[in-house]
Amino acid sequence: MPDTTLPPSSQRPFLRRMLLKAGKKFLRWNGEFQTRHSLISTTPRIGNHEFNWVTALEARWPAIREELDRLLEHPEDIPAFHQISPDQKRISKGDNWKTFGLFVYGQRVDENCAICPRTAEAVSEIPGMRTAMFSILKPHYHIVPHKGPTRAVVRAHLGLIVPKDRDKLWIRVDDQILHWDEGKVILFDDSYEHEVRNDTDELRAVLFLDVDRPMDKVGTAVNKLLFSLIKASPYVKQPLKNLANWHRRAKKSVKQESHARELNSQEGGMS
Questions:
Q1: What does the pLDDT look like over 140-169, one tens digit per residue?
Q2: 79 near 111, Cβ under 8 Å?
Q3: How far apart are the first and last CA of the chain?
Q4: Could you tell me the domains of the chain?
Q5: Does the pLDDT of residue 9 top 50, yes or no?
Q6: Which residues lie across from 161 on neighbouring strands?
Q7: Can you tell me which residues the record assigns to a coiled coil (predicted)?
Q8: Which of the residues 53, 153, 189, 193 has an alpha carbon 20 to 30 A from that of 174?
Q9: Alpha-carbon span 178 to 237, nearest angstrom
Q10: Of the ranges 10-19, 26-35, 50-59, 240-249, which one carries the lowest mean pLDDT score?
């Protein structure tokens, strides 16, 4: 299949990098405000009882897993995280962490949702869902410690493919070690330092979600403004642009392969 690699992230303009850096500092400062106005726990791990959609999502996991399995039949068609979001290049190396985005900060990725319609439908029914994607981690990869930029969202993982050796597969959030189970959701606050390690011989895959943190009226109003600023920033615009480029290149590759098969068929018929 022809190369669908996107241009290296080092080509990003200097001004964009500075804006992102300043924006992340502001968001972390804003975390103190979000802590005061949050209606749920601000601990590293968050109880599933805080969100009434968890049980319904877990019930739909077999259909979601089925769509993921079909995607994994052609792993070369799934981009690495940093190929879509260049700001992740510190924690995403090579093709060890692949992602398949369905929604990016509320922006629907129509091409991907069409490929996984039941998953897209399931996540669309989650109140306050901002981001949804399949997150696929190769064996023997370590996502180094890092922090999310804001406490305005809560991170959810629905376990889909989980190797059995739990001692070699975990996520650390602050001082807590969490484990995945297939068909079960874990919730955590990704503004705490966290890291992931898969030291097994198998890949790990989850449905990765960011959902709005329940806030009081003041917090909700401020977060609404915050989300509008984030959506207008390079942090969101660049991944959406890269996704569009990825799809365009993939379609071109399919056409080229189809044309090559046609030529081979014609040559075979003439021999």
A1: 999 999 998 889 999 999 999 999 998 999
A2: no
A3: 26
A4: 14-251 (2.60.120.330)
A5: no
A6: 205
A7: none
A8: 53
A9: 32
A10: 10-19
